[in-house]
C-alpha cells in the first residue's frame, strides 16, 4: 500500500508514525493483571527483521507463528497484525484471524490468504486496511525508516459471534469484553533506499509445514 510513495515523501514523513502505543495490545486498557501468552516464530526473532519472503518485495506470504502458555479457560484465539510505524493516524492492519483453536499451538507459513496464495482452508479471516480478508504484506515507504509489525495474539474465554470478515473496530470491542490474555511479537522491515533491507541472519530452524 505504501511502497509506491516517492522516497522524498518517505523522508519527509519520517517522524510521522501511528505509534506503538496505538496498537490494540496497548490500547485495550486491560494490560494490568492480564496473563502473557508466549508468541514466537521460527522465521524471525522478536524485534528482528522479517525475511523478505514475508514482505511485499518477496513472495508476500504470512509467516509461521507458535503459541504457548494459554490460560486453561481459553476457548479461542484472535490474531491481529498491525504496522505501528505507518504514517497514518492509526496503525495499518495487515491481518486479522479469529477463531483460532488453542490446541493447534501454531499457524503455519502461508496459512493466511495473500495475493498469490489461497491460504489454509477453514480460517476465519478479517479485513485488513486494504479492505481485503487477507494477509497484507509489509511494504514500508522508501526512506521512512524501520517499521515495527506487531503480531498480537489474544486468548478469549468465550467465542463471540463475529461477522464474515470482521474489521479492527469489531475485533477491538470483542476483545474488550472477552480477552483473557495477550502476547506480542514484533518483526521489522525497512526500505532505506527504495528496496527492502535484507539483513543476514542465521536461520532460526525449519519452517513449519502442514
TrEMBL record:
Signal peptide: none annotated. InterPro entries: PEBP, PEBP-like_sf, YbhB_YbcL/LppC-like. Coiled coil: none annotated. CDD domains: PEBP_bact_arch. It comes from the Bacteria. Pfam families: PBP. Transmembrane segments: none annotated. This is YbhB/YbcL family Raf kinase inhibitor-like protein. It comes from Variovorax paradoxus.
Amino acid at each position: 500500500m505504501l511502497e509506491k510513495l516517492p522516497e522524498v515523501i518517505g523522508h519527509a514523513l519520517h517522524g510521522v508514525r501511528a505509534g506503538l502505543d496505538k496498537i490494540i495490545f496497548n490500547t485495550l486498557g486491560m494490560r494490568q493483571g492480564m496473563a502473557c501468552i508466549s508468541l514466537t516464530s521460527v522465521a524471525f526473532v522478536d524485534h528482528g527483521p522479517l525475511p523478505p519472503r514475508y514482505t511485499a518485495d518477496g513472495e508476500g506470504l504470512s509467516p509461521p507463528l507458535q503459541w504457548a502458555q494459554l490460560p486453561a479457560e481459553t476457548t479461542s484465539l484472535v490474531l491481529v497484525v498491525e504496522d505501528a510505524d505507518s504514517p497514518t493516524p492509526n496503525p495499518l492492519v495487515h491481518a486479522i484471524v479469529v477463531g483460532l483453536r488453542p490446541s493447534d499451538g501454531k499457524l503455519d507459513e502461508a496459512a493466511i490468504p495473500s495475493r498469490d496464495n489461497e491460504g489454509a482452508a477453514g480460517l476465519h479471516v478479517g479485513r485488513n486496511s486494504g479492505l481485503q480478508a487477507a494477509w497484507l504484506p509489509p511494504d514500508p515507504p522508501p526512506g521512512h525508516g524501520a517499521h515495527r509489525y506487531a503480531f498480537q495474539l489474544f486468548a478469549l474465554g468465550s467465542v463471540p459471534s463475529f461477522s464474515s470478515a470482521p474489521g479492527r473496530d469489531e475485533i477491538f470491542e470483542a476483545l474488550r469484553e472477552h480477552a483473557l490474555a495477550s502476547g506480542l511479537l514484533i518483526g521489522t522491515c525497512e526500505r532505506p533506499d527504495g528496496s527492502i533491507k535484507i539483513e543476514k541472519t542465521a536461520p532460526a530452524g525449519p519452517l513449519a509445514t502442514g
